[in-house]
Amino acid sequence: xxxxxxxxxxxxxQPMVAFYELLTGYTADWLAPxxxxxxxxxxxxxxxSAETVSLFKEGSAEPCANKTAILEFMVVDVDAEFARLKDRxxxxxxxKDLPWGxxxxxxxxxxxxxxxxxxxVSDAARLRFSGR
Length: 132
Description:
Strand order of the largest sheet: 1-4-3-2
Number of strands: 8
Number of helices: 4
Number of domains: 2
Distance between the termini: 17 Å
CATH architecture of the largest domain: Roll
Order of helices and strands: EHEEEHEHEEEH
CATH class of the largest domain: Alpha Beta
Strand content: 35-45%
CATH superfamily of the largest domain: 2,3-Dihydroxybiphenyl 1,2-Dioxygenase, domain 1
Structural class: alpha/beta
């Protein structure tokens, strides 16, 4: 089995795609007017409009309702990314060190999903992520 992607369901797909293009530096591939994918090394972020939910099962997903997941992206320099993004997107918390060895910053996408950028800063954390 291969983990293929994470999909977000968006009430307003255009600003969501623009947010993730800005955040990641990758351009989305629009596969349909209601569906786009941002393909990055090691991960795919799929974004579908709320209209796509009915293709699976009506009411099975709901935009703007996430309170359990945090999307995480490993970056070379959290502080540099914070400086690049802090005046352009909503900041949840400024860069800080976490007990498990990562330095992280957290943002909110246009529909409320939390997005963390992190850099492994301890020897143990760098070792954990060296094979990814």
